Amino acid sequence: MLRRGRSEPMARRMDASRQPAPDQTRAGLAFGIGAYGLWGLLPIYFKFLAAVPAVAIVAHRVVWSLLFLAGLLAARKAWGEVTAALRHRGTALLLLATAVLIAINWLVYVYAVNSGHILAGSLGYYLNPLANILLGRFVLGEPLSRPQWLAVAIAAAGVSILAVGALSHLWISLTLCVSFALYGLLRKVAKVDATAGLAIETALLFLPALLWLGWASGGSAAVMGSSDAELWLLIGTGVASTIPLLFFTAAARRLRYSTLGILQFIAPTLQFLVAVFLYGEPFGTAHAAAFACIWAAAGLYLWAALRSSGKAGAQFS
């Protein structure tokens, strides 16, 4: 219990330094690993749709995601969460912003995968943890120890090595990084359940996506898939898109944002492996050096976080 003589700012700093409850942390870690693991393997799914324009794939993702989410909300009888969020003007505005951000992220990512630039996409998601950690520090006030700052510097060095070899497609990396880092931050502070929030986001994008599909399908059969198999894969984008996003938003509400940033190294590492070993994109000395830096940083950061957690537990027990 805090002493009365302590100032309010100091109390806030102490509250910010506390770790989430153990059960919440374990659940958050499970959700985070699930989300980033699925995202890391998602390029395999989209490669089967390489003949479909990227905008069409994103439009299908929006349309079928909304139908899938509507089924989830109906099963949970959770429509009240949607109406409650929409009644709160601040939450509604945040979700409008996150809807735009996730649409941009999806479009650029699908373009990167199907144009043969999975490595540029994975670089964007390697940049994301650094952005998350810094947003957690400077926007949310989450403290970082000296070892954690060192981890950030080592990871930044690794990403810089990769960036030197990807300058021609660096716009892909930076767009993915900025759009998803801001998306995660806004979803963390928005007072809305993960499923309800995602349903509102996709509902905001639903009409433009449906209108675009109706207009584009008249001029190109590929928009709806050139075979029954492609059509079913397009329908399946709703589930493939929704489940990892639900996992991510659930994790973001249970973990420190900087911890979530470290987990995010899972997805680009899997994307690198998929790009190199499945699709033959080049992997050189720079990639190997970057991998060494990034995983050393991840290990250092996690060690520092666990040590800090142990000290906090002893102090407040």
In short:
Helices cover 80% and strands 0% of the residues.
Strand content: under 5%
Uncertain segments of ≥5 residues (pLDDT<50)?
1-18, 313-317
N-to-C span? 10 Å
Number of domains: 1
What is the average per-residue confidence, as pLDDT, rounded to a whole number? 83
Our count of helices gives: 13
Order of helices and strands: HHHHHHHHHHHHH
Shape from CA axes? globular
Q: Tally of extended strands?
A: 0
Q: Helix/strand/pairing class, anyone? A: mainly alpha
What percent of the residues sit in helical stretches (DSSP H or I)? over 70%
Rg (C-alpha, Å): 20 Å
Largest sheet data = none
What does this structure look like?
- The structure is a single chain.
- The chain has 317 residues and is mainly α.
- The chain has one domain (22-316).
- The protein has helices spanning 8-17, 22-47, 54-76, 79-87, 89-114, 118-138, 146-164, 170-189, 194-216, 228-252, 257-263, 266-278, 285-316.
- The longest helix has 32 residues, at 285-316.
- It is globular and about 55 Å long.
Give short descriptive properties of this protein.
317 residues; mainly alpha; 13 helices; 80% helix; globular; disordered N terminus; disordered C terminus
